[in-house]
Amino acid sequence: MKMKNLMLTCAALAMGAASAGTALAQETFTLRFNHVLGASEPFHQGFLDWAKRVEERTDGGLKMEVFHSAQLGVEEDIIEQIRQGANIGQNTDAARLGNYVPGIAIINGPYFVSSMEEAFALADLPTIQKWQDELASDHGLKVVCFDWVQGFRNFYTNKPIRTPEDLSGQRIRTPPAPIWQESIRALGAEPVAMAFGDVYPGLQQRAIDGAELVYPNITAGNLHEVLDHANETKHILLTNFQVVSSDWFNKLPEDYQTALVEECRTAGQETSRVIAEATEKAKQEVQEAGMQIIEDVDMDAFRAAGDAAYEKLGLTEAVQQVRSEMKQQ
User: Span of the secretion signal (predicted)?
Assistant: First the structure.
C-alpha cells in the first residue's frame, strides 16, 4: 500500500513538472504595433511582413498585431504609453524622439542625409548609438530599428518655389516637433502645425498655403486637387523609427529580441526600396493630374538656409560630429 501511494505521488509530481514545462514552453509575447498611415500604404504591408517574419522565426512565441490609421490612438499618446511599459509599438520619427533626446532630431533635419544608403548606415555610428541608449535607459523608448525611409519631402504649393525667398509669407503645414518647425522657418516659410487629415480642408479654407510632404502623401490625400505645384526642394529625407517599451523589450528572450531587431531592419530596407518606386509612380500621377513639377530649384541656397535650423536649436555641433563619423565609415 505504501509502495502504491509512493508511485502515485511520483506520478503526480512528474505530471506537474511536465505541465509546468509545457506552460513555460508555450509562453508567448504580443506586440500591438500602431501607425498613422492607411492600409493601402507600402509601410503597412511592410509592417505586416515584419510581423509575419518575427512570428515564424520565434515559432509563434512573439506575435505582432499591426494597426493602421492610428487605430490605437494618436502618435504622441502612444509614445507615452510605451514609456510606461505597455506592449505597444509605434512608427515615429527622429523629430518627435528629439523631444526626449534633442540630438537625435538631426536625422530629420534639413539636408542631413542624401540617400537611403546613408540613412541605413547611421545605425552603426557611435553618436547615434549613444542617443538610442539614452532613449532606452532614461526615457523608456527602445529603438528597434530606423531603416524605414519614406522618401524626400518637398514643398507643395499653389505657386512655383525655386528659392527660399519664394516661400516668404507662405503658411506651410508641418508636424509640431521643434526640428520640423525650425526647418521650415529656416527655409523661408511660416510653419503651421496641423494633422495630415486636416491638410485638404485647410487648403480649401486657405488656413494654409501649402504643405511639405512626400509624393505618395499627395496621391493618398488627393492633394493634387487643391495644390498646383510640386517644388522639388528635397529638404528632408524622411526616416522613420520603430519604437517599443525598453522595459517590455528587456523581458523578451534574447533570441526574440534579436529576431525583432533583425527582421525590422530587413523589412524596413525592403519597404524603403518599394517606396522609392512608389514615389516615382506618384510623381507621374500628380503630373498627369495637372500639377507642375518644379525641378530647377536653387539647392545650394536651400542647403545654406537649412543650417539656420540647427543653429537655432543648438544642434550644429551634433550635426558636425555625426557627419564626421559618417566620413570615417
Answer: 1-25
Q: How far apart, in whole angstroms, are the C-alpha atoms of residue 29 and residue 61?
A: 6
Q: Which CATH number fits domain 28-327: 3.10.490.10, 3.30.479.30, 3.40.190.170, 3.40.50.12780?
A: 3.40.190.170
Residues 99-125 have pLDDT tens digits of 999 999 999 999 999 999 999 999 999
Dist. CA 212–CA 218, nearest whole Å? 10
pLDDT mean over 145-174: 97
A 10 A CB-CB count for 84 gives 10
Question: What nine digits make up the cell of 105?
Answer: 532630431
C-alpha cell at 157: 504649393
- Its pTM stands at 0.85
Confidence tier at 26 by pLDDT (50, 70, 90): low
Which residue type is seen at 120?
F
Do 40 and 220 contact (CB within 8 A), yes or no? yes
